[in-house]
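Memo to structure team: turn this sequence into structure tokens by end of day. - J.P.
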Amino acid sequence: MNRLLSSFERQDQIIQFLQRSQRISIEEICRRFTISEATARRDLEALGTEGKVRRVHGGAIALAQTPPEAPILQRQNEQPDEKQRIGEAAAEIVQDGETVFLGSGTTVLAVARALRARQNLTVITNSLPVVNVFAGADGITVICLGGMLRPSELSFIGHITEQSLAEVHADKVFIGVRGVSLDFGLTNEYLPETMTDRAILHAGRELIVVVDHTKFERTATVLLSPLDQVQTIVTDGPLPAELSATLKERQIRIIEA
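Reply from structure team:
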């Protein structure tokens, strides 16, 4: 007699099957694991909520995953002109005297470079490259959150960083993400950094996502946030029509650089 699998083991095998076959039905799950339709649906609902599969009528399909994330020093060469335009457009919505939080990543780094010549700003960040941009800049106060350094991203993450976030507050929070989609919202690649990013989302009054056009309708491994938490998206070009219409319905501001 086959050993009864736990829900976690069963869901892991469902994901492995999808990686090979791209699609699985409720009927197939019931047959493979000798479980009821209700249990099969609960498995798929759990996997869908975690952003690991895409639910469709009668079953699920594999996600179109983003490529593995390269280290930040390599990614600086990806869409440099687009990121510069995004950075400049994002910087225009920052007012003198404000406090801004700048997260990690190359697109947020472009925002930092566009803000370097400004006066009377306070910048909070967990990104070492952002700190370096503002080193020696007159008129800008920099608050760097400590924590565990993630070498590939040159960002500080973890419990110490998240504890520090509870002590600060920004007018605007700028973050970058690996994927933006209607079905799965904002997604990233690396779970420990995403946990810190979730705390960053609550560090300010306005959440601004800065992304180039390649990030739309893509889904990375880990759910960061539903789209409803976003107030503004700054990008370099037109969004997919359905995504654009939905964002406008939800009163999310779109700025095209």
